[in-house]
Amino acid sequence: MKFLVTDDELLTVKMLQRLLSRYGHCDYVLNGKEAVEAFKEALSMGEPYDLIFMDILMPEMDGFDALYAIREKEKMLGINQEDSVKIIMMTGLGISIEMVNLYRTSCMEFLYKPIDVDALISFLKDNNLIQQGIEYNNN
């Protein structure tokens, strides 16, 4: 598995890197603009990301704009929805159910910070995004 964590909050980046590196390769960037560029570069090298974690509120380009740019690039390349990169949006803000529903078709899930690691691992395993049998020790 290949992961990309996009967040300007380094504590979240480090926590997710520590978690995800047990299951595959994990890169990180600090804003949405860098996420779109990393996505395009990985795709052009034939090594696309399997899963992107994307914070909503970031400098340069927010997570929603980055999500839209990634989906537009996939459309342009003829990548169908089943083969598109999986994206999980993250926020420390309270967002309305209307906003969640608006973007629900473009992303897999919304996570609220602070992230519940046990719930995240269960979600990832339930959706076959990480290997079963590898246990994460939070210590």
Beta-strand content: 15-25%
CATH fold topology: Rossmann fold
Largest sheet: 5 strands, parallel
Major β-sheet strand ordering: 2-1-3-4-5
CATH architecture: 3-Layer(aba) Sandwich
Secondary-structure element sequence?
Answer: EHEHEHEHEH
Total E-strand runs: 5
Q: What integer value in Å does the Rg equal?
A: 14 Å
Unreliably modeled segments: none
In the CATH scheme, the class would be Alpha Beta
Task: Give the overall shape, derived from the CA principal axes.
Answer: globular
Tally of helical runs: 5
Mean pLDDT: 88
The domain count comes to: 1
Q: Please name the fourth-level CATH homologous superfamily.
A: Response regulator
Structural class by helix and strand composition: alpha/beta
Helical fraction equals: 25-40%
Protein architecture, described:
Helix content is 40%, strand content 18%. With 139 residues, it is α/β, with parallel strands linked by helices. The protein has a five-stranded parallel beta sheet with strand order 2-1-3-4-5, sandwiched between helices. It has one domain (2-126): Response regulator (Rossmann fold).
What is the strand and helix layout of this fold?
Elements: E1 2-6, H1 10-20, E2 25-29, H2 32-44, E3 51-55, H3 63-76, E4 86-91, H4 97-103, E5 109-112, H5 117-126
Parallel strand pairs: 1-2, 1-3, 3-4, 4-5
Helix pairs in contact: 2-3
